[in-house]
Design brief:
This protein has 275 residues and is an alpha/beta fold. Helix content is 53%, strand content 12%. Strands 3-2-1-4-5-6 form a 6-stranded mixed β-sheet, sandwiched between helices. A hairpin with a 6-residue loop joins β4 and β5 (224-228). α1 packs across α6, α2 (28-35) crosses α4 and α7 (125-134) packs across α8. GO terms for molecular function: DNA binding.
Length: 275
Protein backbone atom coordinates (compact mmCIF):
# COMPACT_ATOMS: atom_id res chain seq x y z
CA UNK A 1 0.00 0.00 0.00
CA UNK A 2 1.45 3.44 -0.91
CA UNK A 3 2.23 5.77 1.96
CA UNK A 4 0.04 8.77 2.61
CA UNK A 5 1.34 12.24 1.92
CA UNK A 6 2.86 13.78 5.06
CA UNK A 7 0.26 15.41 7.29
CA UNK A 8 0.03 16.91 10.77
CA UNK A 9 1.50 13.80 12.43
CA UNK A 10 4.62 14.02 10.25
CA UNK A 11 4.91 17.73 11.03
CA UNK A 12 4.73 17.04 14.77
CA UNK A 13 7.24 14.18 14.68
CA UNK A 14 9.66 16.15 12.53
CA UNK A 15 9.45 19.21 14.76
CA UNK A 16 10.14 17.10 17.85
CA UNK A 17 13.17 15.47 16.21
CA UNK A 18 14.53 18.90 15.31
CA UNK A 19 14.00 20.23 18.84
CA UNK A 20 15.74 17.18 20.30
CA UNK A 21 18.66 17.62 17.90
CA UNK A 22 19.03 21.33 18.61
CA UNK A 23 18.86 20.66 22.35
CA UNK A 24 22.02 18.57 21.87
CA UNK A 25 23.63 21.37 19.79
CA UNK A 26 24.18 18.98 16.87
CA UNK A 27 23.98 20.15 13.26
CA UNK A 28 21.58 18.54 10.84
CA UNK A 29 24.47 17.49 8.59
CA UNK A 30 26.38 15.85 11.43
CA UNK A 31 23.38 13.77 12.53
CA UNK A 32 22.51 12.82 8.94
CA UNK A 33 26.05 11.65 8.26
CA UNK A 34 26.15 9.65 11.49
CA UNK A 35 22.89 7.93 10.54
CA UNK A 36 23.94 7.37 6.94
CA UNK A 37 21.27 9.40 5.17
CA UNK A 38 21.47 12.59 3.17
CA UNK A 39 21.03 15.90 5.00
CA UNK A 40 18.31 16.86 2.50
CA UNK A 41 16.26 13.83 3.54
CA UNK A 42 16.64 14.58 7.24
CA UNK A 43 15.72 18.20 6.57
CA UNK A 44 12.52 17.12 4.79
CA UNK A 45 11.63 14.85 7.71
CA UNK A 46 12.29 17.56 10.30
CA UNK A 47 10.15 20.02 8.37
CA UNK A 48 7.25 17.59 7.96
CA UNK A 49 7.65 17.39 4.18
CA UNK A 50 8.44 13.67 4.15
CA UNK A 51 7.03 10.85 6.23
CA UNK A 52 9.70 9.54 8.61
CA UNK A 53 11.11 6.01 8.36
CA UNK A 54 11.24 3.87 11.50
CA UNK A 55 14.83 2.71 10.96
CA UNK A 56 16.06 6.23 10.23
CA UNK A 57 14.30 7.71 13.25
CA UNK A 58 15.55 4.89 15.47
CA UNK A 59 19.12 5.69 14.40
CA UNK A 60 18.59 9.44 14.91
CA UNK A 61 17.27 8.87 18.43
CA UNK A 62 20.29 6.69 19.22
CA UNK A 63 22.65 9.46 18.07
CA UNK A 64 20.74 11.96 20.22
CA UNK A 65 20.81 9.68 23.25
CA UNK A 66 17.01 9.44 23.48
CA UNK A 67 16.02 6.28 25.34
CA UNK A 68 13.23 4.69 27.36
CA UNK A 69 9.60 5.78 27.15
CA UNK A 70 10.38 8.81 25.01
CA UNK A 71 12.13 6.71 22.38
CA UNK A 72 9.33 4.14 22.29
CA UNK A 73 6.65 6.83 22.08
CA UNK A 74 8.30 8.54 19.12
CA UNK A 75 8.91 5.27 17.29
CA UNK A 76 5.30 4.25 17.89
CA UNK A 77 4.17 7.56 16.40
CA UNK A 78 6.39 6.94 13.37
CA UNK A 79 4.91 3.47 12.89
CA UNK A 80 1.43 5.03 12.94
CA UNK A 81 2.24 8.12 10.89
CA UNK A 82 -0.02 6.91 8.07
CA UNK A 83 -2.98 6.52 10.42
CA UNK A 84 -5.31 9.50 9.97
CA UNK A 85 -5.86 11.71 13.01
CA UNK A 86 -9.37 12.86 13.88
CA UNK A 87 -8.64 16.21 12.20
CA UNK A 88 -8.22 14.48 8.81
CA UNK A 89 -11.88 13.48 8.86
CA UNK A 90 -12.75 17.18 8.67
CA UNK A 91 -11.82 18.26 5.16
CA UNK A 92 -12.27 21.96 5.87
CA UNK A 93 -9.79 22.16 8.75
CA UNK A 94 -6.67 24.21 8.00
CA UNK A 95 -3.18 22.73 8.08
CA UNK A 96 -2.28 25.04 10.96
CA UNK A 97 -5.32 23.92 12.99
CA UNK A 98 -4.45 20.28 12.30
CA UNK A 99 -0.89 20.87 13.51
CA UNK A 100 -2.18 22.52 16.71
CA UNK A 101 -4.50 19.56 17.34
CA UNK A 102 -1.59 17.16 16.88
CA UNK A 103 0.61 19.15 19.27
CA UNK A 104 -2.18 19.21 21.87
CA UNK A 105 -2.57 15.45 21.61
CA UNK A 106 1.18 14.97 22.21
CA UNK A 107 1.73 17.62 24.89
CA UNK A 108 2.24 16.77 28.54
CA UNK A 109 0.81 20.12 29.67
CA UNK A 110 -0.97 23.00 27.93
CA UNK A 111 -1.16 26.58 29.18
CA UNK A 112 -3.66 28.84 27.42
CA UNK A 113 -3.60 32.62 27.87
CA UNK A 114 -6.66 34.28 26.30
CA UNK A 115 -6.97 37.98 27.17
CA UNK A 116 -9.91 38.90 24.91
CA UNK A 117 -11.78 35.73 23.88
CA UNK A 118 -12.65 32.55 25.80
CA UNK A 119 -10.05 29.85 24.95
CA UNK A 120 -11.06 27.53 22.12
CA UNK A 121 -10.82 24.40 24.25
CA UNK A 122 -13.37 25.89 26.68
CA UNK A 123 -15.81 27.46 24.22
CA UNK A 124 -19.41 26.35 23.85
CA UNK A 125 -20.43 25.66 20.26
CA UNK A 126 -22.73 28.71 20.19
CA UNK A 127 -19.92 30.95 21.43
CA UNK A 128 -17.40 29.40 19.01
CA UNK A 129 -19.81 29.84 16.10
CA UNK A 130 -20.35 33.50 17.00
CA UNK A 131 -16.59 34.10 17.11
CA UNK A 132 -16.16 32.45 13.71
CA UNK A 133 -18.98 34.53 12.27
CA UNK A 134 -17.29 37.64 13.65
CA UNK A 135 -14.12 36.63 11.79
CA UNK A 136 -16.11 36.55 8.54
CA UNK A 137 -16.17 32.77 8.11
CA UNK A 138 -19.06 31.50 5.97
CA UNK A 139 -21.92 29.46 7.41
CA UNK A 140 -20.89 26.25 5.63
CA UNK A 141 -17.30 26.53 6.83
CA UNK A 142 -18.50 27.31 10.35
CA UNK A 143 -20.35 24.00 10.44
CA UNK A 144 -17.20 22.12 9.44
CA UNK A 145 -15.06 23.99 11.94
CA UNK A 146 -17.50 23.44 14.79
CA UNK A 147 -17.35 19.71 14.15
CA UNK A 148 -13.57 19.91 14.31
CA UNK A 149 -13.76 22.01 17.48
CA UNK A 150 -15.85 19.34 19.22
CA UNK A 151 -13.29 16.70 18.28
CA UNK A 152 -10.43 18.89 19.42
CA UNK A 153 -12.05 19.46 22.81
CA UNK A 154 -12.77 15.75 23.18
CA UNK A 155 -9.22 14.75 22.22
CA UNK A 156 -7.68 17.17 24.74
CA UNK A 157 -10.09 16.35 27.57
CA UNK A 158 -7.51 14.35 29.53
CA UNK A 159 -4.54 16.63 28.84
CA UNK A 160 -3.19 18.62 31.79
CA UNK A 161 -4.48 22.11 31.06
CA UNK A 162 -4.37 25.56 32.69
CA UNK A 163 -6.44 28.44 31.33
CA UNK A 164 -5.78 32.11 32.07
CA UNK A 165 -8.61 34.33 30.85
CA UNK A 166 -8.70 38.11 30.73
CA UNK A 167 -11.63 39.73 32.52
CA UNK A 168 -12.50 41.49 29.26
CA UNK A 169 -13.26 38.11 27.69
CA UNK A 170 -15.87 37.51 30.39
CA UNK A 171 -17.58 40.86 29.95
CA UNK A 172 -17.55 41.17 26.16
CA UNK A 173 -20.88 39.93 24.79
CA UNK A 174 -20.17 37.52 21.93
CA UNK A 175 -23.21 36.36 19.98
CA UNK A 176 -25.86 37.45 22.48
CA UNK A 177 -26.36 37.79 26.24
CA UNK A 178 -27.85 34.29 26.22
CA UNK A 179 -24.79 32.85 24.49
CA UNK A 180 -22.51 34.56 27.01
CA UNK A 181 -24.61 33.44 29.97
CA UNK A 182 -24.32 29.83 28.83
CA UNK A 183 -20.60 30.22 28.12
CA UNK A 184 -19.89 31.55 31.60
CA UNK A 185 -21.90 28.69 33.07
CA UNK A 186 -19.73 26.25 31.13
CA UNK A 187 -16.60 27.93 32.52
CA UNK A 188 -17.91 27.40 36.04
CA UNK A 189 -18.56 23.73 35.32
CA UNK A 190 -15.12 23.26 33.76
CA UNK A 191 -13.48 25.11 36.65
CA UNK A 192 -14.39 22.21 38.90
CA UNK A 193 -12.23 19.87 36.80
CA UNK A 194 -9.50 22.03 35.30
CA UNK A 195 -7.60 25.14 36.32
CA UNK A 196 -9.43 28.29 35.18
CA UNK A 197 -8.04 31.60 36.46
CA UNK A 198 -9.08 35.12 35.56
CA UNK A 199 -6.71 38.05 35.12
CA UNK A 200 -8.52 41.20 36.32
CA UNK A 201 -8.51 44.23 34.04
CA UNK A 202 -7.52 46.54 36.89
CA UNK A 203 -4.39 44.56 37.75
CA UNK A 204 -0.76 45.59 37.18
CA UNK A 205 0.90 45.54 33.77
CA UNK A 206 2.36 42.24 32.56
CA UNK A 207 3.86 40.69 29.41
CA UNK A 208 0.63 38.88 28.61
CA UNK A 209 -0.92 42.21 27.63
CA UNK A 210 1.00 41.94 24.35
CA UNK A 211 -1.33 39.17 23.18
CA UNK A 212 -2.72 35.70 23.73
CA UNK A 213 -0.92 32.42 23.09
CA UNK A 214 -0.90 28.71 23.85
CA UNK A 215 2.20 27.18 25.48
CA UNK A 216 2.61 23.45 24.91
CA UNK A 217 5.05 21.59 27.14
CA UNK A 218 6.44 18.17 26.23
CA UNK A 219 8.01 15.51 28.41
CA UNK A 220 11.34 15.28 26.57
CA UNK A 221 11.40 18.12 24.05
CA UNK A 222 11.49 21.92 24.33
CA UNK A 223 8.21 23.80 24.55
CA UNK A 224 6.23 25.06 21.58
CA UNK A 225 4.21 28.29 21.51
CA UNK A 226 1.21 28.86 19.25
CA UNK A 227 0.30 32.48 18.57
CA UNK A 228 -3.09 32.97 16.93
CA UNK A 229 -3.57 35.62 14.27
CA UNK A 230 -6.88 36.82 12.83
CA UNK A 231 -7.33 33.97 10.33
CA UNK A 232 -4.27 31.79 10.96
CA UNK A 233 -1.50 31.26 13.50
CA UNK A 234 2.21 30.65 13.88
CA UNK A 235 4.26 28.12 15.86
CA UNK A 236 7.43 29.08 17.71
CA UNK A 237 9.76 26.31 18.86
CA UNK A 238 13.20 27.89 19.13
CA UNK A 239 14.26 28.73 22.65
CA UNK A 240 15.14 32.34 21.88
CA UNK A 241 11.56 32.79 20.67
CA UNK A 242 9.72 30.76 23.32
CA UNK A 243 11.57 32.07 26.40
CA UNK A 244 9.70 35.42 26.42
CA UNK A 245 6.42 33.49 26.51
CA UNK A 246 7.62 31.42 29.46
CA UNK A 247 8.30 34.72 31.22
CA UNK A 248 4.85 35.94 30.20
CA UNK A 249 3.24 32.87 31.79
CA UNK A 250 5.08 33.60 35.04
CA UNK A 251 3.86 37.20 35.02
CA UNK A 252 0.29 36.30 34.07
CA UNK A 253 0.14 33.69 36.81
CA UNK A 254 1.41 36.22 39.34
CA UNK A 255 -1.42 38.69 38.66
CA UNK A 256 -4.23 36.16 38.09
CA UNK A 257 -6.92 35.53 40.67
CA UNK A 258 -6.97 32.19 42.43
CA UNK A 259 -9.30 29.52 41.07
CA UNK A 260 -11.79 30.23 43.86
CA UNK A 261 -11.64 34.00 43.30
CA UNK A 262 -11.98 33.45 39.56
CA UNK A 263 -15.10 31.32 39.98
CA UNK A 264 -16.59 34.04 42.19
CA UNK A 265 -15.93 36.71 39.54
CA UNK A 266 -17.30 34.56 36.72
CA UNK A 267 -20.43 33.93 38.76
CA UNK A 268 -20.76 37.65 39.48
CA UNK A 269 -20.45 38.63 35.80
CA UNK A 270 -22.98 35.94 34.88
CA UNK A 271 -25.46 37.28 37.44
CA UNK A 272 -24.98 40.82 36.10
CA UNK A 273 -26.00 39.56 32.65
CA UNK A 274 -29.19 38.13 34.11
CA UNK A 275 -30.18 41.58 35.30
Amino acid sequence: MPRRSPGARAVGIGAELRRLREAKSLSLRRVAEAVGIGPDKLSRVENGKQNPDVDDVSAVLAILGVTGETRERILDEVRNVDEPGWWERHLGITKESAALADYESRAEHVIDWAPLVIPGLLQTMDYAGAVMEMYGIGAEDIGVRLGARRERQRAAADTSYDAYIGESALRTVVGSPGVMHAQLGTLLDIGGRRSVRVVPSAGPAHLGQLGGFILLRFRSAPSVVHVELLRSGVFLDRRELTDPYLNAVTQVSAVALTETESAHLIRQVRQEMEG
